[in-house]
Amino acid sequence: MKGIVLARKLIVGNWKLNGSLPENQSLLKAMLSETSIQAPKPSHVEWVVCPPAVYISQASDLLSGSSIALAGQDVSDQEKGAFTGEISASMLLEFKCRYVLVGHSERRQRFAESNDLIAAKALAAMKAGLIPIVCVGESLADRESGSTFTVLSSQLDPLLSLLNPRALKGLVIAYEPVWAIGTGRNADGSTAQEAHAFLRNKLAQVDLACAAEVSILYGGSVKAANASEYAAQSDVDGVLVGGASLIISEFLSISQAFHA
Ligand code: PGA
């Protein structure tokens, strides 16, 4: 897509199945002190943390009044009822979540979440007023067989077909190649840019103006040492960080790469 991308920069920490009350407290307090006193970040860069669900209440209390946003790691496609183990979008909102991850590859793989279910979850989140961070990404086999773009389309199309075009603005996309997640083998900047440009073009086919405002994040073995590679790409609007988000110095350096 030609033109200027206006999307806000997001640095999202996905804690996955990590943390404890004392560990969360010290990480969040360190983040709060970094945002306020030591290294104020520019307003176009937003920090988001995704703690395990049981810690959302703790994080919500600690982050109250700060500029750090809170996100769930998953959400139900249902509002209420007999759905044991599920958490609804309105519950996340009660604890001041602004975002929620949807369709992370670990959920697609371990919990067999389908593209249709993920579309339904994203839609339920948007209807309730949350911003879904919809994760897409190809496996190594997909990439090696040349089907990366076909797979990305099949992951996103069910959602795009349900959305009113203007609603695109309420969406964040995370491109996370499965082969790069937790492996230390990150996609290089140009590989990420190619996938991001493909995704933005897909969004532009739905609504050209809105596509420029959708933040498209890269995720997969992002760390301080490689963050600037992504920040330099025109269609990379931030990162979704797993392992390195648990280390404050790493998270801070990753963020600084996007401050320019
Ligand atoms: P990673 O995880 O940074 O540890 O590779 C990223 C993610 O799964 O969101």
Defining key terms:
TIM Barrel; single chain; eight-stranded parallel barrel; alpha/beta; binds 2-phosphoglycolic acid; 15% strand; 42% helix; 260 residues
List the helices and strands and how they pair.
Blueprint: E1 9-14, H1 21-38, E2 45-50, H2 56-63, E3 69-72, H3 89-94, E4 99-102, H4 105-110, H5 115-128, E5 131-136, H6 140-144, H7 148-162, E6 172-175, H8 189-206, H9 208-211, E7 215-219, H10 227-231, E8 238-241, H11 248-256
Parallel strand pairs: 1-2, 1-8, 2-3, 3-4, 4-5, 5-6, 6-7, 7-8
Helix pairs in contact: 1-2, 5-7, 7-8
Bound molecules: 2-phosphoglycolic acid (PGA).
What does this structure look like?
- There is one protein chain.
- The protein has 260 residues and is α/β, with parallel strands linked by helices.
- The chain has a single domain, classed as Aldolase class I (TIM Barrel), CATH 3.20.20.
- Helices cover 42% and strands 15% of the residues.
- It has an eight-stranded parallel β-barrel, surrounded by five helices.
- Helix 5 packs across helix 7.
- The protein is globular.
- It starts with 8 loop residues before the first strand and ends with a helix.
- The structure holds 2-phosphoglycolic acid.
- 2-phosphoglycolic acid binds next to strand 8.
